[in-house]
User: Which sequence fits this backbone?
């Protein structure tokens, strides 16, 4: 960082939040925009975060009885047409494959040829193609429950894209399950929402609100959609995971039937649920600061940057030898069930340049090893969530214990910070003009900055929901599970309402 800069990331969050987000991604080298419109290239540091998300979630899915499988990326158009709401919901963002080969166009180029009799849609979600397999797999109640998960890429032809938050192609997991009763399928839908909430809070350190989507916001074709909603630092909501109770809609569309315990044939009950690379966007926006990325240790690709500092060859040998001893010492250290990873940075750069490099990448701990440290058998440690200059001297033998405590403290500190931020920016509003003021940016230079989450009454009418959306770009994020029944009047029309919902601007 040069001396005239105030922070490593410019602009700051307060100056221009959207641009700050892009700059954090660039400075941490997480991803870049590709030449292919709307698609991203996920770079090693960003992909390692995704791999950690996958590893942890995959373990949670297995623990809850699910198994992984893989289905085709192409969905025949006729499959898609079977569920009317579903096709309507995705029609406007489908990539469609219509040809099977390329031919010489006679002008020195190539043209698409071999037109298909039935076009294929590149999966925007897999209910219909997986349903076709499930129809074959399920015959009897003895085949149920069927609990399947798929890790895959998805294509939705988005008009406006932003790295990790909204891209034409993204990575995700999609769970698809089949059950013999309403109750069992509903229980599964709720269980997986709870898994997502636990993952978001315990691993990503992001507090979430669990709730149900309104009719207008639910998944196309679902009976009920449940979600976890998180607050970003610009006080907007980010839907971080969804779990859908599909009733018998998709079972009927895909003909998933089974013989029940009484010998009768009936349609099964299905669910689906998913989280995507969007979680990386959530992670960035929930914790990062004006110096760059801040990573929760439980999901960070590496935990400790080792930065040896020496002036000449003689110092170099001594200091590198000591650094390698530290590396060996920390090698077998386990942070909960996670191996502590060190990154040794011995590049020909100043210690300040190397420190800032790792600050911007969000590595939880930085360890400096200089001539005086070797003499005293100690090192200097800095924590990413504290001031960059805030360093602690730690004795060699005390290092593993210190590192573990620092990682645990960082993990819980950023969670508490995010929780306090959300709770401090979420209020009950009963007055309509106050509601409108709350969602109107007070400073014209910062159109993104507004009040936060409003817990207000809503009568349940789609027209009220739409009016608020048109006026303020604010939507009902969810009807929270913990909403208590209380009499009130709708913030839009004044009619009777029985509970408060969460209103917010969102990504
Ligand atoms: Zn109303």
Assistant:
């Amino acid at each position: 960082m040069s001396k005239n800069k105030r922070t490593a990331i410019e602009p700051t969050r307060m100056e221009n939040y959207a641009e700050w987000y892009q700059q954090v991604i660039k400075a941490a080298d997480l991803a870049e925009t590709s030449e292919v419109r709307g698609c991203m290239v996920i770079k090693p540091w960003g992909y390692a975060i995704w791999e950690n998300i996958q590893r942890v979630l995959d373990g949670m899915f297995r623990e809850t009885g699910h198994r992984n499988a893989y289905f085709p990326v192409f969905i025949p158009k006729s499959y898609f047409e079977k569920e009317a709401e579903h096709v309507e919901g995705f029609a406007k963002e489908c990539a469609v494959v219509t040809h099977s080969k390329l031919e010489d166009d006679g002008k020195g180029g190539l043209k698409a040829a071999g037109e298909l009799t039935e076009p294929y849609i590149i999966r925007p979600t897999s209910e219909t193609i997986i349903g076709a397999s499930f129809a074959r797999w399920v015959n009897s109640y003895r085949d149920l429950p069927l609990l399947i998960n798929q890790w895959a890429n998805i294509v939705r032809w988005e008009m406006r894209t932003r790295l990790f938050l909204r891209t034409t192609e993204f990575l995700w997991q999609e769970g698809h399950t089949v059950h013999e009763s309403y109750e069992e399928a509903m229980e599964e839908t709720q269980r997986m929402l709870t898994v997502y909430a636990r993952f978001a809070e315990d691993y990503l350190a992001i507090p979430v609100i669990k709730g149900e989507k309104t009719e207008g916001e639910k998944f196309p074709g679902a009976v009920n959609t449940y979600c976890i909603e998180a607050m970003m630092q610009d006080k907007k909501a980010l839907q971080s995971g969804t779990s859908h109770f599909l009733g018998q809609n998709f079972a009927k569309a895909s003909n998933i039937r089974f013989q029940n315990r009484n010998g009768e044939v009936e349609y099964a009950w299905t669910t689906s649920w998913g989280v995507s690379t969007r979680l990386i966007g959530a992670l960035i926006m929930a914790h990062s600061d004006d110096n760059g990325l801040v990573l929760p240790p439980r999901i960070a690709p590496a935990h400790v940057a080792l930065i040896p500092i020496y002036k000449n060859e003689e110092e170099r040998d001594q200091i590198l030898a000591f650094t390698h001893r530290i590396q060996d010492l920390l090698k077998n250290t386990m942070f909960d069930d996670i191996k502590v990873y060190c990154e040794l940075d011995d590049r020909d750069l100043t210690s300040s340049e190397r420190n800032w490099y790792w600050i911007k990448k969000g590595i939880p701990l930085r360890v400096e090893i200089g001539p005086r440290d070797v003499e005293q058998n100690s090192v200097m440690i800095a924590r990413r969530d504290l001031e960059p200059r805030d360093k602690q001297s730690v004795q060699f033998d005390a290092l593993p214990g210190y590192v573990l405590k620092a990682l645990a403290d960082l993990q819980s500190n950023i969670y508490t910070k995010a929780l306090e931020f959300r709770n401090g920016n979420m209020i009950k509003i009963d007055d309509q003009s106050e509601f409108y003021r709350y969602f109107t940016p007070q400073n014209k230079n910062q159109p993104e900055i507004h009040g936060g989450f409003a817990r207000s009454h809503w009568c349940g009418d789609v027209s009220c929901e739409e009016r608020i959306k048109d006026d303020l770009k604010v939507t009902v994020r969810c009807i929270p599970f913990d909403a208590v029944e209380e009499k009130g009047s709708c913030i839009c029309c004044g009619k009777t309402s029985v509970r408060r919902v969460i209103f917010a601007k969102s990504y």
